[in-house]
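Students often ask why inverse folding is considered easier than folding. One informal answer: many sequences map to the same fold, so there is more than one right answer. In these notes we will look at a single instance of the problem. The structure comes first.
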């Protein structure tokens, strides 16, 4: 394996856009600092429950960006290595969705409702991981609807979330959800692709996920300290 760059040009191997993976690399730096701060404050100023919820959330956010950066910034020279990283990359999306819902389930919903939502998203996420691990080359029309279905699992409990946590977290969740959904559509359609050597269709997908992650981080912060 090599980091994308001159070695790939010299070898004649396909070259990804120069920006491939950088958006998530920068997001990893920001997410790591923000997550450590959030977790420390949650344990110190709130409760162990809040600390654990934010730790799960932070681990999945940083895990998503770390695996994505590794997968996209390195040129994998064997099909086996690339397939393993593709499995990990796509699986982390499911775990990230479940991790993002964890603080809302534990801190912003009535106990019974929160337990149901937490069970649904984590069972769904683990099922998604099994799918990606066992069928890494599944068509995009198989994986994308599952991401969207799991990502919008909050809809049935939206009223209770507003009642418990207020309007702002739900609005931020919805805005982030829209960006994630738009990103999923761009991923599925491979559009737009205006600068394929520099900033291709996948970079638009990564940009959408980074913006959505920021929206959801603010929502989690409001739930923990609101």
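Output (designed amino acids):
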């Amino acid at each position: 394996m090599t980091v994308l760059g001159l070695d790939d040009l010299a070898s004649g191997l396909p070259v990804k856009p120069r920006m491939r993976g950088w958006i998530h690399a920068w997001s990893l730096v920001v997410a790591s600092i923000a997550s450590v701060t959030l977790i420390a404050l949650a344990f110190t100023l709130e409760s162990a429950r809040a600390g654990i919820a934010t730790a799960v959330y932070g681990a999945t956010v940083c895990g998503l960006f770390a695996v994505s950066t590794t997968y996209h910034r390195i040129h994998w020279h064997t099909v086996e290595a690339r397939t393993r990283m593709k499995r990990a990359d796509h699986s982390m999306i499911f775990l990230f969705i479940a991790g993002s819902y964890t603080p809302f389930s534990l801190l912003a919903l009535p106990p019974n409702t929160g337990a149901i939502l937490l069970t649904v998203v984590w069972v769904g996420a683990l099922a998604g991981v099994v799918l990606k691990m066992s069928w890494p080359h599944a068509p995009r029309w198989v994986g994308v609807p599952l991401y969207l279905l799991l990502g919008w699992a909050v809809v049935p409990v939206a009223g209770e979330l507003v009642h418990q946590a207020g309007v702002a977290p739900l609005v931020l969740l919805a805005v982030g959800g829209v960006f994630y959904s738009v990103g999923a559509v761009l991923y599925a359609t491979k559009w737009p692709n205006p600068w394929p050597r520099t900033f291709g269709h996948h970079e638009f997908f990564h940009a959408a996920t980074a913006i959505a992650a920021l929206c959801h981080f603010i929502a989690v912060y409001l739930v923990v300290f609101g």
